[in-house]
């Protein structure tokens, strides 16, 4: 973890950050969240907040947009609870609600808002300032609303987050047992 302009990441005691990741500045990880290998989370010009039981998988980039006279709040990166962000995604200055799965390689841009209970398919591009409505699958470049989620898909959103809590606990226990 790295301090930037006197601000260091805030990490809950039950959260996990893989040692190969870079987490810098005003970044907050809530309970049972995890950041996996080679993630870059740079809260240097705005804030990044991860909710409870959220996991950010390998090679993902998390960044923000600075505050300016044209955009006084800038665009922080806010991610809710029980969110799974797949491998090699890019999330930039967007807001994600709860129980979301972001497929591998997806890009979500500044000002986009993803409501609760959403699947974003692998490789999907969510353009700036788009709102993704709760309860749907979104795919494509640029993204399109494909169809409503099934009941089993909605249940899977929480299960995916639970699976990563279990996995991060295994990693933490292995670190403790190795020391």
Name the descriptors.
UDP N-Acetylglucosamine Acyltransferase, domain 1; 1 helix; globular; alpha/beta; LbH_gamma_CA-like; 8-stranded mixed sheet; 16% helix; Gamma carbonic anhydrase family protein; 179 residues; 35% strand; 11-stranded parallel sheet
Can you walk through the features of this model?
It comes from Alteromonas sediminis. This is Gamma carbonic anhydrase family protein. InterPro entries: LbH_gamma_CA-like, Transf_Hexapept/Carb_Anhydrase, Trimer_LpxA-like_sf. The protein has one domain (10-178): Hexapeptide repeat proteins (UDP N-Acetylglucosamine Acyltransferase, domain 1), CATH 2.160.10.10. Helices cover 16% and strands 35% of the residues. The protein has one helix at 151-178; strands at 10-11, 16-17, 22-29, 34-35, 40-50, 55-56, 61-63, 77-79, 84-85, 90-92, 95-96, 100-102, 107-108, 113-114, 118-120, 125-126, 131-132, 136-139, 144-148. A hairpin with a 4-residue loop joins strand 18 (136-139) and strand 19. It has one helix and 19 strands. The mean pLDDT is 97. Strands 1, 3, 5, 7, 8, 10, 11, 13, 14, 16 and 17 form an eleven-stranded parallel β-sheet that branches. Strands 2-4-6-9-12-15-18-19 form an eight-stranded mixed β-sheet. It is of the alpha/beta class and 179 residues long.
